[in-house]
Amino acid sequence: MVHPQVLSNCGIDLEWWQGFVFGFGIDRLAVMRYGLDDIRELVNNNVRLLRQF
């Protein structure tokens, strides 16, 4: 869910609308492109993995 403050900052009426977010992020694209088994490998600071890129 989108935080109500984000919608409010965009001028959207919170009494009428609410937000749901989904999408295909750059991290998921990297997992598919490089054949990683787990998306968490991108953020665990494994230097040996990161040196491959």
- Rough outline: elongated
Compressed to H and E, one letter per element, the order equals HHH
Number of strands: 0
**Number of DSSP helices?**
3
Termini, distance in Å?
Answer: 33 Å
Descriptive overview:
The chain is mainly alpha-helical. Helices cover 36% and strands 0% of the residues. It has helices at 4-9, 26-34, 47-50. The longest helix is centred in the middle third of the chain and has 9 residues, at 26-34. It starts with a helix and ends with a helix. The model has no long low-confidence stretch (mean pLDDT 84).
Quick structural gist:
With 53 residues, the protein is mainly alpha-helical. It is built from three helices and no strands.
How are the SSEs placed, and which strands pair?
Blueprint (H helix, E strand, L loop, with lengths): L3 H6 L16 H9 L12 H4 L3
